[in-house]
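Let us work through a complete example step by step.
Step 1: write down the sequence.
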Amino acid sequence: MGDDLADPPAPPEALPHLRYLKALVSGLAVVMGLGILAIVALLWLRLGATGPVLPPQLALPSGEVAEAVTQTATRVIVVTRAGRVLVYDPAGALQQEIKLTE
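Step 2: predict the structure and record it as C-alpha cells.
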C-alpha cells in the first residue's frame, strides 16, 4: 500500500488527435483576432471619412452643406443639413428644390 503512494504514475502522453485539436483551436483564435482587427480598421476608416463628395460641376447655394449625395444616370440629388433636397441635371443645373418638413 505504501508503494502506490510513493511512486505517482507518469502523466499519459497527449493523444495525437488532441494535439491536432489544440492546433485547430489556436488557429481559430488567430483567425478570429485578425477578423476583429479587420472590422475595427474598416469601421475606423469609414467613420473617420469626410462628408459626401459633390461632383465638380455642382454648386450648392451659399450657406448649404451637403449631407448626402445620390447620383443616377439622369439626376444628381443632394440632401442638405438645412433639410432641403436639391435635384440637379448631370450638367449641374438646378432642376428642382424640395423643402423637407418634420
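Step 3: interpret the result. Residues 2-47 form one domain.
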